[in-house]
Amino acid sequence: MKEATKMKKIVVALGGNAIQANDNSATAQQKAVRKTMKVIAQMIENGDQVAITHGNGPQVGNLLLQQHKGASDANPAMPLDTISAMTQGSIGYWMQKALDDQFKHDNYPSQAVALVTQTIVDINDPAFNNPTKPIGPFYNFNEMQKQRIYHPDYIYKQDAGRGYRQVVASPKPLEIVNAPIIKNLLNNNFVPIAAGGGGIPVVVDHGHLDGVAGVIDKDFSAAKMAEDINADELVILTTVDNAYLNYNEANQTAIGKVKVDQLKQYLKDGHFAAGSMKPKIEAAIEFVEKTGNRAIITSLRNANKLNDEVGTIVYN
Predict the structure, then answer these.
(1) Domains along the chain with CATH numbers
(2) What InterPro entries does the record tag this protein with (predicted)?
């Protein structure tokens, strides 16, 4: 294990690829989670303090469809904030179980804690009038048109050229309500799994927290959580080794170490797809600017090579 003076506090944000499988069954998704948690356990066992957050876009969308399909007057569908809590709990449970099993296998003295986490947003956030966050499955054009017949109140948009998905409001996170608990868990050698799916969006109303309909982008919440718990590093794990200029074009170029001002120019030049790499870039910029610490965007397979300067490394 590393010396205490070298220990870093890291927030690791996992994309939906860390959970999704070829089918949507619990068995298949848990199998994917176990593979992911084996890698994350190795990071933790190297000696760093690691808090985990994750996406839930596919799961929350699928559960929303299930809720509405089976709804009746006697058994109405749950609202979106509650569905977010439900998926946060189920995914957190899968991750906690997989991590604890790995820790036991490796004889490592720690435990994971899945924390149902609330995230404060602004009720006047313009996102509530302009839904952009993709959730649920992908549809081709004809499938999307059929879905509109069944759900005329849903809004569908193209998602980075991969098909159509339902979109919902995605307000910006202002504060991770449970940040003090996350810090306390880390300081006592637990591994918190927190702010899943960006956290449950809540607003402050006369001193009370009220849930609202929306799904917060997990990358922005990861940056906010990293800021709120004074993390040394934000690591966003995705399907690619780096962020790229001219992605999927003949002149595609990997971005390695990059100063935040240069990355902002790349963002302004339109190099990153909305709903895909763009929010990861924006979250990395936000964390670096607010804390002065570095952010890394890379693939899950590079998670144990971070000290080798892999991926896109954003710094001041």
Answers:
(1) 9-131+169-314 (3.40.1160.10), 137-168 (no CATH)
(2) AceGlu_kinase-like_sf (IPR036393), Asp/Glu/Uridylate_kinase (IPR001048), Carb_kinase (IPR003964)
